[in-house]
Amino acid sequence: MKPISLHEIWMGATKCRHCAVRDSALFAGLREADFRHIHQPIKDVTLAPTDVLYRMHERGGALFTLRGGAMKLLQYLPDGSQRIVRLLKNGDVLGLEALVDQPYQHDAVALTDCEICAIPASVIERLGHEQPRLYQELMVRWQQALNEADAWLTEFTTGTARQRVARLLLRLACPDQGGHLPLFGREDMGAMVGLTTETVSRTIAELRRQGVLRDHGATLRECDRETLHRIADGEE
Amino acid sequence: MKPISLHEIWMGATKCRHCAVRDSALFAGLREADFRHIHQPIKDVTLAPTDVLYRMHERGGALFTLRGGAMKLLQYLPDGSQRIVRLLKNGDVLGLEALVDQPYQHDAVALTDCEICAIPASVIERLGHEQPRLYQELMVRWQQALNEADAWLTEFTTGTARQRVARLLLRLACPDQGGHLPLFGREDMGAMVGLTTETVSRTIAELRRQGVLRDHGATLRECDRETLHRIADGEE
DNA sequence: CGCCCAGTTGAGGACACTCAATAGCGGTGG
DNA sequence: CCACCGCTATTGAGTGTCCTCAACTGGGCG
């Protein structure tokens, strides 16, 4: 849980502008010339699992694009228990709050090794003045986040444990045939669907026994999307 | 449940530009001159409870500001059950999806009598070209929606029925001393916190018996925010 | 007056939680 | 190389909460 201070982020050399930002989904579509406007440092950040990118209520003034890896956004309840509010993967943006001058709304924690680009909000503001296109791009990101949030609400907080886990698996393991996420720990899965680790474990164990899931070693898996869908819809 | 077709909305007279849009929170801050850019109709809409403003998956091309009343945004599960994903009140914006050319993501249903302003996405785009300020305003709205969504996830899907109902009451009845929302039906409340109507009813009945809630006639209420907070935090 | 709908209350059962013990894996050090 | 430790996952037993089904109440309105 080594925290990475924002200070640390900004003090680094300005090695970007030549960096991978240009590939970054956020800036895709901006033309070469537009980059001359970037006078502030855009810094690369690397994280290891459990590292914290930023914390709730912090005022960082930067947003981030996730160029590689996976992260989770956490919120906490008064009793201390935590809930995973969203997952982020390649190309996703986090910390958009910074653009409207708000403190971060979550803890952002790395689930895998991550490569991240940190972009000061001021850079966006400057670019945006001459590139309304950028705002369009940002709004798309915002809407994506909102869709995700709503989907989580309806998919992961309703129905039986069996249904929720099935839906989660469909979202995590299966979407892209090869790119299995490491299939997180039971604890994290529980925090996503609002169940205890034990219940998640039991549920997955049963799915395995029924042949819906196949454990390839430790973390890799195959899954029968067909039946998972039926389970998710409560038909089984 | 009389549906209001979007066609119906757009065919109306262009009585706005002089209309209340200028007071609308969304456009607050734009100066007089900026309104000359609005060539398209901005239409007023009035809804009665249970009326539908738009439906999921529709492509309306317009966004809306809620000038008065309260609305709910719904999503559905495969089994047909519905979940209330967000509530909207005075000054809130809905249908932002239209700005990024997406179909609406929810059913938008009136809970009370509503006054609404319908604004074509094209108007925003045109205005935005010369008024980057407007984008800033829009992003703030988007972030608001996102904060709401996240808050619902953590507050209304965790803890016991007692806790959830307490949190809901704190959000609905109490925030503004006088402006009690009609304290929705049990069914709606259930759809917000992920419980059955019976459980909500039982829970509220008990709170009443314990003197935390006082029924003033039929819908009005007083509540002991102090103890509600303690209940919400699981200390009672 | 009686219907209708929303809310309330009851009884019974299912499901997920809690607490607790066991198993499996990986790393570390003797 | 094996023994041991720590962590995570798994499994079990018992309990509590919430859901389901169903009956009953009460106010609003035709």
- Biggest beta sheet attributes of chain A: 4 strands, antiparallel
CATH superfamily of the largest domain in chain A: Jelly Rolls
Biggest interface: A-B, 42 and 42 residues
> Helix tally of chain A?
7
CATH class of the largest domain in chain A: Mainly Beta
Strand content of chain A: 15-25%
- Uncertain regions of chain A: pLDDT < 50 for 5+ in a row? 1-23
Shape assignment of chain A: elongated
Number of strands of chain A: 10
CATH topology of the largest domain in chain A: Jelly Rolls
Overview of the molecule:
Two copies of one chain form a homodimer. By secondary structure, chain A is α+β, with helices and mostly antiparallel strands. Chain A has two domains: 2-133, Sandwich (Jelly Rolls); 156-232, Winged helix-like DNA-binding domain superfamily/Winged helix DNA-binding domain (Arc Repressor Mutant, subunit A). Helices cover 35% and strands 21% of the residues of chain A. Chain A has seven helices and ten strands. Chain A has helices at 6-11, 121-130, 132-156, 161-172, 186-193, 197-209, 225-232; strands at 43-47, 52-54, 62-68, 71-76, 82-88, 93-94, 107-110, 114-120, 213-216, 220-223. In chain A, helix 5 crosses helix 6. The longest helix of chain A has 25 residues, at 132-156. Chain A is elongated, with a radius of gyration of 19 Å. Chain A starts with 5 loop residues before the first helix and ends with a helix. In chain A, 42% of the residues are buried. The model of chain A is unreliable at 1-23 (pLDDT under 50). The A-B interface holds A 75-79, 81, 83, 85-86, 96-97, 99-100, 102, 105-106, 128-129, 132, 135-136, 138-140, 142-143, 145-147, 149-150, 152-155, 157-159, 194, 232-234 and B 75-79, 81, 83, 85-86, 96-97, 99-100, 102, 105-106, 128-129, 132, 135-136, 138-140, 142-143, 145-147, 149-150, 152-155, 157-159, 194, 232-234. Chain A binds a DNA duplex (30 and 30 nucleotides) through helix 6.
